[in-house]
Every structure is written in C-alpha cells, then in structure tokens.
C-alpha cells in the first residue's frame, strides 16, 4: 500500500481533474437513464409527432453518457504524468523520500480508485433508478456499465504506460495511440503492401477471423458494439490492463528523467522508432497512393511521399525538445 503522504500529494496536485472525473463517473450513468426517460416522456406527451408506440427502454446500444468514460482515463493519465512533467513538477516528485516504485503505485492507485469506485457508485444509483422508474426493458445495462470500468482502466493504464516512456504530453498521447492501433500497423498494413507488390491475396485480411481477435486491438473498445458479444471477451482488456501496468511500472522505475522535454526518456529508442515511423509512412502512403490511382506508379509516388513525411514527422517529434509549460 503506497504511503498516505504520496496519495495526498497526488490528490492535491491533480484535484481538479480528479474531482471532475469523479463527478462525471458518478452522474454519467444515472443521467443516461434519466435522458432515456425524458425522451420517453416526450413521446407520451407529444405522441402525434412520433412514429410507432412509446416504449420506455433503457438501451445501452444507443449513445449514452458513459460511452465516452474511457476519455477520462486518458485525461487522468495525462494529468498525472504528461502535464506534471511538462510543467516541470516531476523533478520535485522524484526528489521526495520515496522510491520510484512507491511513486508509480501511488499514482496508479489514485487513478484506479477514481475510475473504479465512482463508476460502481454510479452503477448502484442507476440500478436504484431503474427499480424506481420501471422501464419496459433494460438492454445490456449491466454488461455495459460494468464493462466500461474495465475499458476505462484499459485506457488509463495504456496512457500511463505511454507516459512512463515519454518526455512530454504530445509524445505520451502519440505513443499511446500508436500502441492502440499497433496490430493494424504491424500485421495488416505490411500484409496489404505485400498484396500490392506480389499481386497475391492474403487470406487472413479478407477471410473470416475469430471474433476474439479484434479485441486484441485496444482502440476497438471505443465502439460500444463490444457489449453485444460475450462478456467473457472483457477478460482480454482486463489482461491488457495488467500488462500495461507492468510495462509502466518497470519503465517508471528503470528509466531516468534526465531527458525532460524529449520524445523518449530512453535515448536508444530514438533511432529505431524513427526508422519504424518512416517505414510505416512508406507503407501507409504507398497504399493510399495505390488505392487512389489504382496503379503501381501511384504506389511508388505514395511511398516516396510517405518516406519524406515520415522522416519529417519523426525528426521534429523525436529530436526536438519541448519547453516546460
């Protein structure tokens, strides 16, 4: 258990973000149900303007306030690492008489409690509200409400891990987004380019794949359609959350903070990542060039443009130091 002094420091330093997040998590779910109830009441009072019967349905397949709860996991992680580092407060944090491991655990425990406990409170309030309002049906209410806790923790742990590897907010968000779509970048994009170059069809791109495979891509959970599948699939983001926590913990403990403002805290990552960015730029723009012109000439021009753009983006992002806010 982290020292109470560290937990208090996290609370004081990120109080605004924490309070807003707590309020959103507690009120978001009940407000979603109240919004559906008001829509139903609007149908009842103005029935002549509606098509079909008026049914009070708590349907979580439609857009709800809690569908964007994952954003607050991102906000918390950026506040606790990216903003603290960019404002120059991180040196003070590391100068406190605590180990790096204790500091990271305190940060993660603070964020985890703020994500999990208020959402559970909001869930209980929503259950009571449903019992009081007595809707005709509640579609995916329990699966979605409890599943969003896991999805929010996945977003939080992913961006926290990104923050332990990087030296500024932009780098933290970019690395996190890249990891979120990494299966596409590492598997699908190269396969598409092989198809173009060799003129062959690779079955796993176009053919059926097991449904669980798509849930290995973290960004897939932004779309609420995951709630329609088996709740057992939520084991995957739960495991990924643990993996990102371990990566973040090890990185926070092992990496120094001497490269404040640079893209990566660990300098040996600079060149390999730049090469990877250029390669991805070549493959990505090559594919778009081929798709736009349906010719190999367009593919070549796209690859050339991708090489230049990839080099420029990687050079200015990785090797240029950003100043403290």
UniProtKB/TrEMBL annotation:
Instruction: Spell out the Pfam families in the cross-references.
Output: ABC2_membrane_2
Q: Does the keyword Membrane apply?
A: yes
- Keyword tags: Membrane, Transmembrane, Transmembrane helix
Record field: transmembrane: 16-40, 60-78, 108-133, 139-161, 173-192, 233-252, 273-290, 296-318
Presence of keyword Transmembrane helix: yes
Q: InterPro entries given for it? A: ABC-5_transporter, ABC_transptr_acetoin_YtrC/YtrD
> Which superkingdom, per the lineage?
Bacteria
* PANTHER family in the cross-refs: ABC TRANSPORTER PERMEASE YTRC-RELATED
Q: What is this protein called?
A: ABC transporter YtrD, permease component involved in resistance to cell wall inhibitors
Traced from the root, the source organism's taxonomic lineage reads: Bacteria, Bacillati, Bacillota, Bacilli, Bacillales
- Gene name in the database record: ytrD
């Amino acid at each position: 258990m982290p020292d109470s002094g560290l937990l208090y420091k996290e609370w004081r330093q990120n109080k605004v973000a924490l309070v807003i997040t707590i309020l959103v998590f507690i009120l978001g779910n009940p407000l979603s149900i109240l919004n559906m109830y008001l829509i139903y009441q609007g149908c009842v009072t103005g029935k002549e303007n509606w098509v079909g019967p008026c049914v009070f349905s708590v349907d979580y397949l439609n857009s709800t306030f809690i569908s964007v709860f994952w954003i607050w996991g991102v906000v918390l992680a950026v506040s606790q690492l990216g903003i603290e580092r960019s404002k120059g407060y991180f040196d003070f944090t590391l100068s406190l008489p605590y180990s790096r491991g204790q500091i990271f655990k305190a940060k993660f425990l603070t964020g985890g409690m703020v994500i999990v406990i208020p959402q559970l409170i909001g869930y209980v309030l929503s259950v009571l509200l449903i019992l009081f309002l007595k809707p005709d049906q509640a579609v995916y209410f329990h699966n979605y409400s409890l599943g969003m806790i896991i999805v929010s923790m996945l977003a939080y742990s992913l961006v926290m891990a990104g923050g332990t590897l990087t030296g500024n907010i932009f780098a933290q968000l970019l690395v996190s987004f890249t990891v979120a779509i990494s299966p596409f970048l590492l598997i699908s994009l190269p396969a598409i380019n092989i198809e173009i170059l060799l003129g062959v069809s690779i079955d796993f791109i176009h053919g059926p794949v097991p449904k669980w495979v798509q849930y290995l891509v973290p960004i897939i959970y932004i779309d609420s359609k995951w709630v329609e599948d088996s709740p057992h699939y939520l084991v995957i983001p739960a495991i990924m959350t643990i993996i990102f926590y371990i990566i973040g913990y090890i990185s926070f403990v092992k990496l120094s903070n001497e490269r404040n403002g640079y893209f990566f805290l660990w300098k040996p990552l600079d060149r390999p990542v730049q090469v990877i960015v250029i390669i991805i730029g070549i493959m990505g723009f090559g594919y778009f060039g081929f798709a736009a012109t349906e010719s190999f000439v367009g593919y070549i021009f796209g690859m050339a443009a991708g090489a230049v753009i990839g080099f420029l983006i990687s050079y200015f992002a990785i090797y240029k130091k950003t100043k403290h806010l």
